[in-house]
Design a protein that fits this description.
Blueprint lengths: L2 E8 L3 H12 L2 E5 L2 E6 L1 H14 L6 E9 L25
Antiparallel strand pairs: 1-3, 1-4, 2-3
Helix pairs in contact: 1-2
Length: 95
Amino acid sequence: MRGRWLVCYDISDPKRLRRVYRTLRGYGDWLQLSTFRCELSEREKVVLRNLLSEELNHEEDQVLFVYLGPAEGRGAEAIEGLGRPLLERKRVNIL
């Protein structure tokens, strides 16, 4: 079962920041600065966490995974916003 996750990051070094952004771009939709929405299986989440962990300085950087619910259920509507609309995109499974 796929879950919907909000992945937010705070990376102190510009080179690491770019690498983290590029990694996440392969797993989800960029919403705002340092924020992605990802639909992940448990396996994909483990792979993504490992990839991100390799890029981080664990003393200076932080990545947060916030579970929004099942991708087919409430997870699709767990984000509310103001201003321009949040566009739904169809994702292609990369694994």
